[in-house]
Amino acid sequence: MTDTRDCACGQTTVRDDAARWFVRLQEPAVSVDDQQRFDAWLNEHPQHRDEFQLLQGLWTAADLLPAPRLMALCETPPARRERRPLLRYAVAASVVAVALGLFSGLNHPQGYSAEFATALGERKHVALPDGSVIDLNSRSRLQVRFEKDRRLIELTEGEAMFSVEHDTSRPFVVEAGSGKVTVTGTRFDVRRDVTQTRVAVEQGTVKVQGRDAADADFISLTAGLGTRIDAQGKVAPAYAVNPAELTAWRSGKLVFNNASLSEVAEEVSRYRDKPLRVANPAVASLRLTSVFKSDNTEALLKALPSILPVAVRTLADGSQEIISK
Q1: Sign of torsion, CA 244 248 263 163?
Q2: How many domains does the chain have?
Q3: CATH number, domain with residue 237
Q4: How far apart are CA 83 and CA 86, in angstroms?
Q5: Which DSSP string do the residues of 105-136 spell out, in sequence order?
């Protein structure tokens, strides 16, 4: 599967476009045509939304400045507005830079803390004040706490994709179940299940270890590698992964590549009110290769009997079970 997050137009161009749209939308009046063009640009590619929401997060950080000062920074003399259309962009970029500077040098005792969660079928995009970005999958919950010497994330449930802003002075630590992942800047996915935690790296390098392991006891993962941490904190040897498939949920897709039906049932259950089960080990071992929409798991259940020798039955509690034909 093609990773649609890689934008052929280049990150710098997208970032510039996002900044221009951001400034345009700060105007007192935005025309219907402009709003429609912005909506079309925003939905054209996931990276567009990423860059725009990052600017929104940084702009929120500017709330630390007094309101009159912000207004003064963002004002452009009317007589010169037409002759210098990029001035507002430059000024806004300066304000964002000020906000970034405030956060990077901020030394409040309470630091920064927040909690984010998603409901069944919901995905959420979160821009953090350090420039890092988190995408939360369905039924996920995490807590964020920034301290002077580290950025700590506690993934208490579900799955999240982390795009971490590089900062060697403050490592970015994700704790999930019996394991933890430490980075200074990279892009990786962490999924916490009942019995294990899975880590997959799309870009950069991460350090994975048991939560209570000694500092020297860890394995390193680079792009295209993953691992699992069991309930006792034991980290499995690194193995090859396809990050695009594992994180296809970000674009609302479920990608199964020779997956067992037990794995399919476990994944599909994340997007359903009632769990999906398999009847016995023989059914659980059947393999499936296909792509479905995460917001329409009924289509998957209807398609299964035409792909594999199985049927789907509804149980008394409303849950469903895959059985042999």
Answers
A1: positive
A2: 3
A3: 2.60.120.1440
A4: 9
A5: H---TT-EEEEEE--TT--EEEE-TTS-EEEE
